[in-house]
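FIELD: query
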Amino acid sequence: MQISVINAKELTSDLVGIWENIQSVNPALNSPFFRPEFTRALAATADNIFVAILRDDCDSVTGFFPFELVRPGFGRNLEMCDYQGVIAPSSFSPDPVEIIRGCGLRVWEFDHLLVGSPAFVPFQLHTADSPFLDLAAGYEAYIAALSDDGKRQLTKVNTSARKVERELGPLRFILNTPDAQVMAKMHEWRAGKYGPLPPRSHAALEIIRAAAGDDFAGLLSALYAGDTLIAVHFGVRSRAVWHWWFPTYNPDLPSRYAPGMLMLQHMARSAPSLGARIIDLGKGEADYKEKFRIGKFTVATGSVDAPTLGNLPRIVRRNGLNFIRHRPALHNFVRKAKGIFKSSPTVD
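FIELD: result
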């Protein structure tokens, strides 16, 4: 395998075309976060976004590997990116260490690596579910396929909808609004809960918001009750997947209105009109994700560390944690021991 690295700003239309062709034959890469447009949006606002181009012995491009260079020798996943990995055909099984060395890296850290390639398993520390709503057969079919818990939760959402309409006015959903004030509200409400995004993230989101292609687009959705804006969601979609990305809710309204669930319900109803087969809820253990999901993907946290003397402590730690994680009895013992030490009084 031959590896060359370019700044993501230098992606040519020919390379983008190859990237898109690879995605078209590998359904695992359906997420908008795997699209070249996402990488280019981040690269437009920063100088440290790079793409490794993987070639076979015949000099044909076989894959791409986007990454952010934190400092010399140290890379990580792209920011705000809920799916990470190598853009390559499903039959391609690259050597992760060879890839990062070809990128001039000693370390590449990831937090949403799509699980699937056996080559990356030794580098995974933790895995988590990324639940999704399957809307391929339409909204009514999705409702019919929900678990009993999901159907009970949906009944509560419908009750909340009636309550909101009685007290505030009719619900009105805008699938994609160009209103800059709505985007400003999304940032304001999110910052109040989690803190503000850095300026470069703001700039990247504006580029994504302006995208309106069939294969990649930003969607700014707004939900009103009467004249009151109760929820905003900024998401990103590919042809098949709409990703639940930045949901925000009016902090001045009581939680009993369940604005987030009302927003998700309206998005699910609208997804088939976009041609979206999936609403991906992203990694997380929120109760509603479990109740509303039909299926799930798996993502991993960890790092690829080149076998160097400087990386030895990282490699020993990772291998030790993996040794424990794959032995349930030992894993349970360690968890209980940690709980005991946490609850023990401090001895002066």
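FIELD: remark
Residues 148-167 form the longest helix (20 residues).
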